[in-house]
Amino acid sequence: MDLFSTILILILLVSLSGIVVKLLPFQIPLPLMQIALGCILAAFHFYVEFDPELFLVLFIPPLLFADGRKTVLKDFIHNVREIVGLALVLVVITVIALGYLLYWILPVPGLSLAAALALAAVLSPTDAVALGGIVGQGRIEKSKMEIIEGEALMNDASGLVSLKFAILIAIGQMEFNLFEISASFFFVAIGGLAIGVLVTWIYTKLLRKVNLLTNNDPAIQIVLLFLLPFAVYLIAEHIGFSGILAAVSAGMTVKQSGIMRNAPLNIRLQSESTWSMLTFVFNGFVFILLGLQLPKIISDTYAVTNLDGSTIEIWQLCFIVIFVYMALMGTRFLWLYAMKRLPVLPVILKKPLEFKNYSIRDLWISTFAGVRGAITLAGVLSIPVEITGRYELIFIATGVILVSLVVAVFVLPILLGGKVLLNNSQVDNEVLYAKGFMAEEAIGSLEKMQNSILADVTDGIDSEIVHEVGSRVIGSLRRRTGLKDLEQKALEAENLERRMRLVAIGSERAALYQLKIRNEISEETFERLGTGLDIYEAMLTGENK
């Protein structure tokens, strides 16, 4: 019962966080509001025991799977060199450079180099979800955001794999061998990606069979699809591969398989709304749990630094947090600048990297966009208790998460201010071209259908009805073929038609309610017709996207 009450309270807090940020007269990013609500709840002695392994299994696979589903494979492949440069090479540079720096500056007696490297490893992954909550949608150019999101998808795995090796070395279960670690790293990463693709391919084949057997029942498909990221994560981890990369590749594979694209409309609508709700709740859980842990992390660190006779104090740790954050941002900026200046090479860099076109301001935007979040918290809390300096390391990692979020809140809007972010002219032209082409193809099909119906005497359909309906539908489509020449009038006509149809839907829905109130129709008829109106309205308003 206590667990059930805890879950209900956390869900309520997640919902309240969304309401509060809308009501406030000033803008506060949703992740920071959720952290603050978690701290407030902790002040009332509400505490949730944090199990890092359970956290990783419960929250990270579905969130990364959802991000993978939204990733456009063509764009990802186009940016793969930039993503590898940030998600792999930068992580290695950060782990080594920051690890040695922490080992030299941290005045913690008995702190090993492996423990310092472990902290550097958990600080290397970035969080695109937290970034989206800070800057909002469309504030960073699409091409830049694709690289940042691709980096965040991949560096979770590289950071956690590095952490795993560092912990094994720290507790004496593994010897440091650069070649062995590098080989294991690539083996784990490639294996995770392969498991995600293979299991998802088999899973989607089985899911299609299940859909045929259940007549495309939306509930069954959505639940089975929701279980997929957990399945690939657990299978990959059990074999010894990266479960995180397996979840990412599973999301991408599902998108490429077309199982949702070819599903009936009601399944697509329900699936999108369900996943939107789940990702909102799970993301909220992550940051509220961070807020709940924060007071205990501070109190535990304070108690440990006083009891064990440590030479380090809380205020010194706070300065170290700021210093570590500055070192992280400095390393990130220098690496971005280095990739901007990389010369063109015959094989890998025969085409310049995207960073070549970045201005200095663009480099700073990409630098401060590297905020830290959920993976960093889960990773640092998974450091075993027997490792010396564990509490100090947890304090530093938590502090860096908060500092990165707060600094991004103030710095990114300044860097983005006055910058022309989106140029929609190319997209608008593509939309006009696509609408015209689609309309021409549809008109051709309808004319063939019309002639076929008129030629088939067995149908018994009145030719006047065929001409009337055909001219009405084809006439509506013909307006789209003239979008390039009569764009304004055509768009006005489309908008007017949409408004009229929405008014008609509203009247139909009111009439349906009247019939139900008067008990002239059954509940089943009411639900069936109401669902049809909802789907039609979603199609007109575009809310199914």
UniProtKB/TrEMBL annotation:
Coiled-coil parts of chain: none
Gene Ontology terms for molecular function: potassium:proton antiporter activity; sodium:proton antiporter activity
GO CC terms, sorted: plasma membrane
Location(s), subcellular: Cell inner membrane; Cell membrane
Major localization listed first in the record, in broad terms: membrane
GO biological process, alphabetically ordered: regulation of intracellular pH; sodium ion import across plasma membrane
Highest taxon above the source species: Bacteria
Listed transmembrane segments: 6-24, 54-72, 84-106, 112-135, 183-203, 223-254, 275-294, 314-337, 358-381, 393-416
Domain Cation/H+ exchanger transmembrane: 12-416
Membrane topology: Multi-pass membrane protein
InterPro entries in alphabetical order: Cation/H_exchanger_CPA1, Cation/H_exchanger_CPA1_bac, Cation/H_exchanger_TM
Keywords: Antiport, Cell inner membrane, Cell membrane, Ion transport, Membrane, Sodium, Sodium transport, Transmembrane, Transmembrane helix, Transport
Entry annotated with the keyword Membrane: yes
NCBIfam families with a match to the protein in the record: a_cpa1
Function: Na(+)/H(+) antiporter that extrudes sodium in exchange for external protons.
Family: Belongs to the monovalent cation:proton antiporter 1 (CPA1) transporter (TC 2.A.36) family.
Protein name: Na+/H+ antiporter
Source species: Frischella perrara
